[in-house]
């Protein structure tokens, strides 16, 4: 829903009703992930996408029916690689799409959700998408780490969903959970879609050089909140890095230590050290390699890398800590320009996140998409996401 949140808020605040189709589950080579959404307003205008064009026509028709008074609808598109084209998914994947009417009546707390997302506050919305009692379909509860709002029909169900949604929010996971009619954890028949909204992951780029300017553009495009940091004020300026969300003039290691103490680093944060200067990169890498980050990379030649490792060991960095360092950073694409290098680094970031190999897909067999390695969830959560 994040991709249509702005348009949805404008309609909600104006008192308009819209039809919203949301991908709630995917199987095989589905084109878009759970949470992708498409909005259809009363005039027939469309925002967003659920499949990149494959089944938008069918979802459009369903959204119109829901706006005309039909109940919320859960539909499956795609059956197999052989007949996927006939049902709309040429990629051979399968997606479940939940289509509902959204307005002040059906989602009275939408403004609360939108405010939390805008403020960068982690929040999840859990929506009943299938139930033996059809009157429960469309019911929802908002879940934060420390509180919740809304109800789904029974205290037992509310407690189970809030507990599980909070666990999914902690890992940034979006997906479907299954329960018995009254929230029984081993039951079935009632399905709840949990859509987790976390703040964008951070990308910290150290070194205000031309490669950093290209990296900020690509990083922002990929959805990161990008910070450029350099101790030299003549180079670290907003005019040189217009795509960065913030430009900081400070010693890299001191800034990173401050962010760590303030709790603003997490397991999704990427640190890119592009300085090429031991007095900058060794201190900041010493700090970075002792934080639970998603990625720590440093630019430089093979010779620079070997020298950097020795300097880091002299500073007390252990071999196990050094194992987390990607240096030289990026994948072997033959990149030369700053823009090509930014693509190479981004490719390694993506591969690290999703477990990709970096090889040509044409030379591989099996699934194209990979699932990230995340902390264990409950047995029911794992089963529901398979």
TrEMBL record:
Boundaries of every XdhC- CoxI domain copy: 12-78, 117-180
One Pfam family named in its UniProt record: XdhC_CoxI
Domain XdhC Rossmann, residue spans: 203-349
Which Gene3D superfamilies does its entry note? NAD(P)-binding Rossmann-like Domain
Extract the ranges annotated as region (Disordered). Answer: 366-386
Q: What is this protein called?
A: Xanthine dehydrogenase accessory factor
Its source organism is Actinopolyspora mzabensis
């Amino acid at each position: 829903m994040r991709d249509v949140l702005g348009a949805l808020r404008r309609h909600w605040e104006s008192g308009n009703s819209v039809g919203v189709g949301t991908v709630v589950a995917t199987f095989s080579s589905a084109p878009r992930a759970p949470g992708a959404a498409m909005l259809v307003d009363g005039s027939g205008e469309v925002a967003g996408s659920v499949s990149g064009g494959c089944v938008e026509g069918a979802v459009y028709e369903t959204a119109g029916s829901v706006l005309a008074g039909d109940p919320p609808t859960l539909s499956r598109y795609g059956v197999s690689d052989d007949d996927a084209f006939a049902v709309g998914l040429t990629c051979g994947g399968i997606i479940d799409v939940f289509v509902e009417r959204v307005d002040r009546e059906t989602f009275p707390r939408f403004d609360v959700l939108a405010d939390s997302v805008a403020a960068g506050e982690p929040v999840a919305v859990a929506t009943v998408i299938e139930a033996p009692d059809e009157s429960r379909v469309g019911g929802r509860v908002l879940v934060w780490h420390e509180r919740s709002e809304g109800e789904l029909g029974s205290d037992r169900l509310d407690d189970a969903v809030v507990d599980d949604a909070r666990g999914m929010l902690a890992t940034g996971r979006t997906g479907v959970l299954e329960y018995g009619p009254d929230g029984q954890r081993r039951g079935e028949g009632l399905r709840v879609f949990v859509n987790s909204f976390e703040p964008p992951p951070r990308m910290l780029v150290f070194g205000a050089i031309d490669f950093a300017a290209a990296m900020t553009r690509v990083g922002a495009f990929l959805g990161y909140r990008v910070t450029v940091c350099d101790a030299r004020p003549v180079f670290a300026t907003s005019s040189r890095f217009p795509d960065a969300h913030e430009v900081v003039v400070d010693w890299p290691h001191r800034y990173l230590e401050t962010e760590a103490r303030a709790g603003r680093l997490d397991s999704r944060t990427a640190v890119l050290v592009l300085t090429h200067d031991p007095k900058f990169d060794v201190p900041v890498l010493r700090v970075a390699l002792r934080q639970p980050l998603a990625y720590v990379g440093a630019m430089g030649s093979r010779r620079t890398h070997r020298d950097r490792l020795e300097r880091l060991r002299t500073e007390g960095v252990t071999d196990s800590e050094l194992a987390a360092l990607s240096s030289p950073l990026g994948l072997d694409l033959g990149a030369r320009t700053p823009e090509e290098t930014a693509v190479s680094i981004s490719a390694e970031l993506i591969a690290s996140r999703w477990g990709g190999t970096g090889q040509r897909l044409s030379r591989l067999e099996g699934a194209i998409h990979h699932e990230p390695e995340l902390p264990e969830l409950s047995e029911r959560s794992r089963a529901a996401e398979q």
